[in-house]
Amino acid sequence: MTAYDVASDRPRQRRSWVLPALPARRIRLEWLLPYAVPIVLVLVWQLFSSLGWISTRIMPAPTDVAAAFVEQLLSGALLHNVAVSGARALAGLIVGGTIGLLLGITNGVSKLSEQLTDTSLQMLRTIPHLAMIPLVILWFGIGEESKLFLTSLGVLFPVYLNTFHGVRNVDRELIEMGRIYGMSGWTLFRKVILPGALPSIFVGLRYALGIMWLTLIVSESIAASSGIGHMANQAREFMMTDVVVLSLLIYAALGKLADVIARALERNALSWNPVYQK
Amino acid sequence: MSGYVSRFERRQGTVEPLGEQGRTVSAAATEAVSIELRRVEQSFGQNRVLRGIDLDVPAGQFLAIVGKSGCGKSTLLRLLVGLDRPAAGSLRFADRSGNTVEANARIVFQEPRLLPWARVVDNVAVGLGQVIDKDTARVKALMALDDVQLTDKADQWPARLSGGQRQRVALARSLVSRPGLLVFDEPLGALDALTRITMQELVSRVWRELGFTAVLVTHDVSEAVHLADRVIVLDGGKVALDLEIPTEHPRRHGDPDLAVVERRLLDAILG
Ligand SMILES: Nc1ncnc2c1ncn2[C@@H]1O[C@H](COP(=O)(O)OP(=O)(O)O)[C@@H](O)[C@H]1O
Ligand SMILES: [Mg+2]
């Protein structure tokens, strides 16, 4: 038995003799090092603003942004706008993601369906969806429908492409194995095809999240009466650079949050994959 | 059965006949089948791979098939387990009293073909095929894992196992439904030399213990001679040589009688 255990024990061993070799203080320094440059930049920025070397009309001081944050938070406007934008993003993700997922699976499994719809989808994909904003405003005005339509459309394609690719590339030999052991239809799909396609589906999801925020930012800036994009746009009209910068930071934070959630889901769903085993 | 002592019995320090210690149920469910092939042919387009195979394999025999690469060994195995239908000829399975039956046939490939997203025990349970309740499935899967001495890895991911261990899981998966016919397509071809020897002993042991009919395709003539009751050489789409190997199981590596048989087979294959 011992001969077989070597392979599985190796990764654990390696970790245990690399980490203790480093003294504790150096480890903490290593963690801080990546943040050193941003921290220094913010400090310099603050210094230059306080000295009056940077006009607040071009760039507000970090303290001004922090003050704007507190003010917007206390007035309730911030939370309201974050909630509105978050809900739009989620709705677009659900609608576009579901359509993309279903189309990807159907076309991946059925040759007929692929022949029927894949070329049309590829043609639609070549139109940059943000270029449709004028048309979308004509269709839906600046109501919720326009944002939902655009984000769904943006999210749909990466999810579709990666799901399709994932389903198509499930190991043929595993499918044959499943059939040998009497799997077919739904069972084969649930036990072999879907889990096999999942890594690729997650790639699509993370792509889609990026496109989702981008679409939302653009469409909220142009055609909205609420949301963070609208908040930024309004602030621009009143020359409130601090609120504009705050909006940027909030978009960045939301984007990061979505990615962290997606990564956690991915790690959880793909825990069988050696890549995610630590 | 000479010489075989199950792990369980060894732990108990007693040597009793098999089936006395809770293995009865699983072993008794095995119904080895005999195989009868008549003028079996198979072709792919213009390529006539099998050109009339006549073969009788008695129930419980260990048959090895050797031959040059591309001579149709895998093609023949796929017919045996019903993955493909023959272009011509007939194929019949019978139980020990001669009644035609459906063979509960299983195949072990060179690659283990485990589901990477299912834990070892769940991979083995795949072999049960039909839907049964989870607890029963787990118990049966654990018993099959015990056959290949891997119960301690039951809740591991396949990615965590070595190549030999994965192939043992694949073997357990094919054993869990207690097949009447077990077919191996170069099952040890991808393993290193030492692991191969361990695996050969394991295959030989489960075959002696469970008593299914075994058909092994291998490119390693000494492996064929070491494991099988009988070796056939496939050439030109026909059975070119058919040799019984009477030496008793379990066999020792380096037995001079077996070396003679091995020589004859190699001569037949290399022409
Ligand atoms: N599905 C298939 N389609 C076409 N040709 C095949 C197929 N399977 C096998 N063959 C051909 O049949 C011959 C025998 O193949 P195979 O049975 O795999 O040989 P081996 O004895 O090495 O296992 C080869 O020439 C191979 O190219
Ligand atoms: Mg082959």
UniProtKB/TrEMBL annotation, chain A:
<feature type="transmembrane region" description="Helical">
    <location>
        <begin position="122"/>
        <end position="142"/>
    </location>
</feature>
<feature type="transmembrane region" description="Helical">
    <location>
        <begin position="211"/>
        <end position="231"/>
    </location>
</feature>
<dbReference type="InterPro" id="IPR000515">
    <property type="entry name" value="MetI-like"/>
</dbReference>
<protein>
    <submittedName>
        <fullName>Aliphatic sulfonates ABC transporter permease</fullName>
    </submittedName>
</protein>
<dbReference type="GO" id="GO:0005886">
    <property type="term" value="C:plasma membrane"/>
</dbReference>
<feature type="transmembrane region" description="Helical">
    <location>
        <begin position="32"/>
        <end position="53"/>
    </location>
</feature>
<keyword id="KW-1003">Cell membrane</keyword>
<dbReference type="Pfam" id="PF00528">
    <property type="entry name" value="BPD_transp_1"/>
</dbReference>
<keyword id="KW-0813">Transport</keyword>
<feature type="transmembrane region" description="Helical">
    <location>
        <begin position="243"/>
        <end position="265"/>
    </location>
</feature>
<feature type="transmembrane region" description="Helical">
    <location>
        <begin position="148"/>
        <end position="167"/>
    </location>
</feature>
<feature type="transmembrane region" description="Helical">
    <location>
        <begin position="89"/>
        <end position="110"/>
    </location>
</feature>
<keyword id="KW-0812">Transmembrane</keyword>
<dbReference type="InterPro" id="IPR035906">
    <property type="entry name" value="MetI-like_sf"/>
</dbReference>
<keyword id="KW-0472">Membrane</keyword>
<comment type="similarity">
    <text>Belongs to the binding-protein-dependent transport system permease family.</text>
</comment>
<feature type="transmembrane region" description="Helical">
    <location>
        <begin position="188"/>
        <end position="205"/>
    </location>
</feature>
<dbReference type="GO" id="GO:0042918">
    <property type="term" value="P:alkanesulfonate transmembrane transport"/>
</dbReference>
<comment type="function">
    <text>Probably part of an ABC transporter complex. Probably responsible for the translocation of the substrate across the membrane.</text>
</comment>
<keyword id="KW-1133">Transmembrane helix</keyword>
Automatic annotation (TrEMBL), chain B:
<dbReference type="InterPro" id="IPR003439">
    <property type="entry name" value="ABC_transporter-like_ATP-bd"/>
</dbReference>
<dbReference type="InterPro" id="IPR017871">
    <property type="entry name" value="ABC_transporter-like_CS"/>
</dbReference>
<keyword id="KW-1278">Translocase</keyword>
<keyword id="KW-0547">Nucleotide-binding</keyword>
<dbReference type="InterPro" id="IPR003593">
    <property type="entry name" value="AAA+_ATPase"/>
</dbReference>
<keyword id="KW-0813">Transport</keyword>
<dbReference type="GO" id="GO:0005524">
    <property type="term" value="F:ATP binding"/>
</dbReference>
<dbReference type="InterPro" id="IPR050166">
    <property type="entry name" value="ABC_transporter_ATP-bind"/>
</dbReference>
<dbReference type="GO" id="GO:0016887">
    <property type="term" value="F:ATP hydrolysis activity"/>
</dbReference>
<protein>
    <submittedName>
        <fullName>Aliphatic sulfonates transporter ATP-binding protein SsuB</fullName>
    </submittedName>
</protein>
<keyword id="KW-1003">Cell membrane</keyword>
<keyword id="KW-0067">ATP-binding</keyword>
<comment type="similarity">
    <text>Belongs to the ABC transporter superfamily.</text>
</comment>
<dbReference type="InterPro" id="IPR027417">
    <property type="entry name" value="P-loop_NTPase"/>
</dbReference>
<dbReference type="Pfam" id="PF00005">
    <property type="entry name" value="ABC_tran"/>
</dbReference>
<keyword id="KW-0472">Membrane</keyword>
